[in-house]
């Protein structure tokens, strides 16, 4: 009977409006939830087949949930460097459980893998980046050679992004690039000092002072003799016997030779002073200079003020205790602790004076003696200062000694049908048959969005729109209750006919 059909229509209307109310309530409740995607109801008719063309059989209404998961939310700036957001398509891969692998020292995912746009990540007690719901961010770790990332399409092969226990090892100074002008009108015996901060293997800062003293023009025109002085330690002869690796020389400790130049420290010998050689016995007789002072050599200039030559001749006498690398650099061996028997802290330092025939390094012009530029590659021990993430998803650790180190790369995961993902508690989604397979990409490639650092994606809820829907839903619900009460009154009239 049509009255009962109307009742059923009213009941179905009450049900779908209740569902609509639940979705609106959820949206309003999550208006400030980072990365939340709005839910909205979709209504469609229910039709029952009638037995006659002249009769109408009421069916009612049904509803489904439409999730605009692929809708972009507004990006809001954050003061936290580990807050990240996606501008464009894709999701962060996260997991609800990680376990430390003692072999690789990486946290590997051992739980379920989910996908989210909520990028409010903070380090937990183990240093893993987790979001507000406790899900750990996954990413590509660096390879064993620290030259690239271990990119993979297998989500379970990724690692938890971890920023704990990171420190920068000290780096001994092995290269000094010097750019300075020596005043051409300086009289005989006049000098100019340049203090260079250098670091030993333990990261201790020392001072090496280079002194340039003008040579008598009657002896050598436009020439300066160069000495070096250490605040602690001593200089070691690169080849005390001047026999290029013969008995009693420091080069011999390296186990190599270079027949091209008796005063050149070849690549094989240099390895001895980069940490692979531990026995430097015999250095006591190879110390050059006294009290941490060494005569390096002589630099001469062309009449136009450009650098002409760099030699190991000091005071006009050949100095075999100092090596020359190329034709424009002094190379000295520095023993910082002065322990000549086991000098594991000995370091070779190249002092680069610029291009021959150029003025990019040392020059001799009429201006004052002045340092133009001075750089060295040594660093002290560094503690983790901060962590940053760039638009490519590369997580970089910044240390208080100025060093930077790339740790992980955060990938972007895309789906053919992202709106078909299944929502889970914690503002994450899981894969379904309808969503398609997850495709792992690097940020900005293959249709994947880019990563915005120090940003958070806001909820896609429009509060004014939700309040409007709330009023409409309330009115629709009330109207459906009128259907039921009216149908009830009609049935009551039918019952009274029999009486």
Automatic annotation (TrEMBL):
Gene Ontology BP terms: bacterial-type flagellum-dependent swarming motility
Alphabetized UniProt keyword annotations: Bacterial flagellum, Cell projection, Cilium, Flagellum
Compartments it resides in: Bacterial flagellum basal body
InterPro entries per the UniProt record, alphabetical: Falgellar_hook_FlgE_sf (IPR037058), Flag_bb_rod_N (IPR001444), Flagellar_basal_body_rod_CS (IPR019776), Flagellar_FlgE/F/G (IPR020013), Flg_bb/hook_C_dom (IPR010930), FlgE/F/G-like (IPR037925), FlgE_D2 (IPR011491), LlgE_F_G-like_D1 (IPR053967)
Domain Flagellar hook protein FlgE D2 residue range list: 190-378
Residues covered by the Flagellar basal-body/hook protein C-terminal domain: 453-496
Superkingdom of this protein's organism: Bacteria
Domain Flagellar hook protein FlgE/F/G-like D1: 85-139
Family designation: Belongs to the flagella basal body rod proteins family.
Summary of the function given for this chain in its UniProt record: A flexible structure which links the flagellar filament to the drive apparatus in the basal body.
Protein name, entry field: Flagellar hook protein FlgE
Organism this protein belongs to: Marivibrio halodurans
